[in-house]
Amino acid sequence: MPAKIIVIMSPKGGVGKTTTAVNLATAISLLNKKTLLVDANLETPHVAVYYGFVGFKYSLEDVLNGSAKPEDAVYTGDNPNFHLLPSRIAKKGGDKSVYKLVNLNLHLKKLINRYDFIIIDSKPSYDIEFIKLIENANCIIVSNPDITSIIEAKKLKDELDDAGIPILGMALNRTNSRIKEQVTEKEAKDLTKIENLWKIREDNTVYRALKTGIPIVMLSQKSAASRDLINMAKEIIKL
Ligand SMILES: Nc1ncnc2c1ncn2[C@@H]1O[C@H](COP(=O)(O)OP(=O)(O)O)[C@@H](O)[C@H]1O
Ligand SMILES: [Mg+2]
After folding, report:
1. From the CB of 174, is ligand 1 less than 6 Å away?
2. Higher-confidence position of 3 and 66
3. What's the 3-state SS for the chain?
4. Measured from the CB, is residue 157 less than 6 Å from ligand 1?
5. What percentage of residues in the chain have a pLDDT greater than 70?
6. What is the pLDDT of residues 48-101, one digit of tens each?
7. Is CB count within 10 Å lower at the N or C end of the chain?
8. Which ligand is nearest to the CA of 211?
9. Where are the domains of the chain?
10. pLDDT tens across 213-222, in order?
11. Which residues surround ligand 2, an ion (CB under 5 A)?
12. How much is the pLDDT for 115?
């Protein structure tokens, strides 16, 4: 069976797309599924930072511009189920040539039979042209529990629905039960009409994980956000 492809999306930046993509991919791989994580945010790529992974030779940019084969830019570590196709953090600004992503589907096709899951991190955007380019892609929308974030998530949902792109669900990231003013899970479901919702709690360990370069689902499996992300990974495997 070819890999299930999941693109992590949100119109807003800073809501937790990369945190979700990194930890979901890592958690799924720890559940014994062969997983490839692709950093397709060419403008502000941070996936490698979440793994403390620097100084790699080839990146997705090299694959897209034809100077490397996909397998040259796929890296693996101690966990044989986890592979990473990173993007390079540019010294000055980001790579604005996002049009290069048109070729991503072609390269994914060469890899798709080697994995159970391919998780793709993306830049913040309403633009669904990117996901439309990827054959058989599914989407997970990430939102924060505030009304503006939810409104934008709903707009993206409607666009994806119009294009016939399946939405596996929404990650409601940074929930905090002490903040009563936050949008509740029920409100988020009612407002977005997204049926599947995974709550990820606000958790300072997320910052510690980022500083140490170890995904939170490996660094601290008992922490609140880690438990939520592992639970989300288990449910996604069953979908
Ligand atoms: N559940 C959470 N609890 C605490 N901090 C979080 C949580 N999720 C994300 N963050 C922090 O928020 C910031 C933005 O997250 P990130 O995943 O990079 O967002 P995006 O990829 O959508 O721009 C990061 O500093 C990250 O550590
Ligand atoms: Mg990001």
Report:
1. yes
2. 3
3. CCCEEEEEECCCCCCCHHHHHHHHHHHHHHCCCCEEEEECCCCCCCHHHHCCCCCCCCCHHHHHCCCCCHHHCCEECCCCCEEEECCCCCCCCCCCCHHHHHHHHHHHHHHHHHCCEEEEECCCCCCCHHHHHCCCEEEEEEECCCHHHHHHHHHHHHHHHHHCCCEEEEEEEEECCCCCCCCCHHHHHHHHCCCCEEEEECCCHHHHHHHHCCCHHHHCCCCHHHHHHHHHHHHHHHC
4. no
5. 96
6. 999 999 889 999 999 998 899 999 999 999 999 999 999 987 756 655 555 678
7. N
8. 1
9. 4-141+205-234
10. 999 999 999 9
11. 17-18
12. 98
- Summarised one tens digit per residue, pLDDT across range 195-206 is 999 999 999 999
Question: Ligand 1: which of 50, 178, 206, 211 to mutate, judged by most atoms within 8 Å of the beta carbon?
Answer: 206
What local confidence, expressed as pLDDT, does residue 126 receive? 85
| Res 43: pLDDT | 86
| pTM attached to this predicted model | 0.97
The number of the ligand 1 atom at minimal distance from the alpha carbon of 44 is 23
**Rounded distance between C-alpha atoms, residue 233 and residue 239, angstroms:** 10
Say how many Å lie between the CA of residue 207 and the centre of ligand 2: 14
